[in-house]
Amino acid sequence: MATSLTEWFECELRKRGLRLTEEDLQRIVRVLEERGWISIHPELYRGLMEEIEKLIDRRPELGYASIADFIADAVRRRLEELSKSPLER
Question: Number of folded domains in the chain?
């Protein structure tokens, strides 16, 4: 298992037979920063991801196949909750 996002990304690229130069990687990071897709608090998100991963491993009966599945379900449920009127909450 990759120990960092960079290692994971490079591994995924290799699987697809792709290689990026250091300049390519810097441009990607710059675009991610400009779009706000890179957090200024990565330790917070790392901790959340680790907790989700532990939960998925401990509780397979919940039916989450991945962290992305868990996050999608959590966001969907929160959107449903927020779309209710204050009296329904």
Answer: 2
Domain of 28, in residue numbers: 5-34
Residue 53 lies in a domain: yes
pLDDT band for position 34 (cuts 50, 70, 90): confident
Judged by DSSP in three states, 4 sits in coil
What lies within 8 Å, CB to CB, of 50 at 6+ separation is none
Residue carrying the six token digits 């991945």: 66
d(CA 87, CA 66): 34
> Is residue 16 in some structural domain?
yes
Predicted confidence (pLDDT) per residue in 7-26, tens digit: 788 888 889 988 888 888 88
Which tokens belong to 56?
A: 């998925």
